[in-house]
Design goal:
single chain; 246 residues; alpha/beta; 7-stranded parallel sheet; globular; disordered C terminus
Length: 246
């Protein structure tokens, strides 16, 4: 029996290599029960400063590639530059390495995951994955998610997504304010929410691992959800968290 395959999408200013470190808690939960695929975003955004968390984390090299899925340009109107290039890459990935069972996304990667979900649902407009035949995702695990705030892309968010979703939200996130993440929760039929006392990062705590395990257990054969805790909406302290870029 083939392992479930999960697409992992990094945030703005990150890379596949860095996101593997950011998601080590999730990777520990999944273990050998699923294949995690980490693509690099196609937009090179140049050098960014390192966060305090980066500087104290021995696993992170002093230099790494800063990539994104699009540039947001704010002028007379909002424009997501490079998103067409990104969707071409995603379409090719779905075709050549799919099918994927679900997506794990952080920040801009979480926003992209919702766009992919909308396009797989057949929502027609200016954005497209191309001639891709891929089933809808079985689940989305989103941290610091937000809506792509471009007026011409509003059609992506019209109607409810019948896709199981877990939303990880930092109550004190100043990069993607909690209200923006809560907004996208409303686009899903039955969103599960894990809200913790912290900012714009993916918690590395045991409680977060339990919540993730419980959520993934129905989709990943071999995971035991018995020790995963209960309740769809919980709050935890930020102890053990690792800071991440947007």
């Amino acid at each position: 029996m083939a392992k479930p395959k999960i697409l992992c999408l990094h945030g703005f200013g990150e890379s596949a290599e860095l996101f593997k470190i950011r998601t080590r808690n999730i990777r520990a939960v999944v273990g050998e029960h699923a294949e995690l695929v980490y693509p690099d975003g196609p937009i090179d955004i140049g050098s960014l400063h390192m966060t305090t968390g980066d500087l104290v984390d021995p696993e992170i090299a002093s230099e790494f590639t800063n990539l994104g899925w699009w540039w947001m340009r704010r002028g007379r109107s909002f424009e997501a530059r490079g998103i067409g290039k990104t969707l071409d890459l995603i379409g090719k990935l779905l075709t050549e390495q799919g099918p994927f069972d679900g997506i794990v996304g952080f920040s801009q990667g979480a926003a992209l995951a919702i766009v992919i979900c909308a396009l797989l649902a057949g929502r027609e407009g200016p954005l497209s994955l191309g001639a891709v035949e891929h089933p809808q995702m079985k689940f989305l695990l989103l941290a610091g998610a937000f809506q792509l705030e471009v007026p011409e892309y509003e059609y992506l968010y019209q109607g409810e997504f019948d896709v199981p979703s877990l939303h990880i939200v930092g109550a004190y996130d100043t990069v993607v304010e909690p209200e923006r993440s809560r907004q996208v929760q409303g686009y899903f039929a039955a969103p599960e929410v894990f809200e913790f006392v912290g900012g714009h990062f993916i918690p590395q705590s045991p409680k977060c691992a339990r919540i993730v395990r419980r959520f993934l257990a129905p989709f990943v054969a071999g995971l035991d959800a018995e020790d995963a805790g209960a309740g769809a909406a919980v709050t935890e302290p930020a102890a053990g968290a690792v800071a991440a870029t947007a």
